[in-house]
Amino acid sequence: MTTEYVAVPASWTVAQTLQHIRQVERTRETVYAIYVLDPASQQLQQVVTMRRLITGLPEESILDVAQKWRG
């Protein structure tokens, strides 16, 4: 079993991220982590679990979801 990830821009919403995951999930074994990248530099800003992602509102920013759950 391989744990895979999906990387998305920090400017995306929860809805955009979920749609992207639906499209790429077919080519992945198991997606547990969503890497949130700075759109300009492509540097990692946050990591969101799938569990946290689905608790976000569709219009909410993926970065806001990540920061809300940050320890």
Automatic annotation (TrEMBL):
Molecular function in Gene Ontology: magnesium ion transmembrane transporter activity
GO-annotated cellular components: membrane
Domain CBS: start-end pairs: 1-65
**Which keywords does this Swiss-Prot/TrEMBL entry list?**
CBS domain
Q: What is this protein called?
A: CBS domain-containing protein
Q: Which organism is it from?
A: Diploscapter pachys
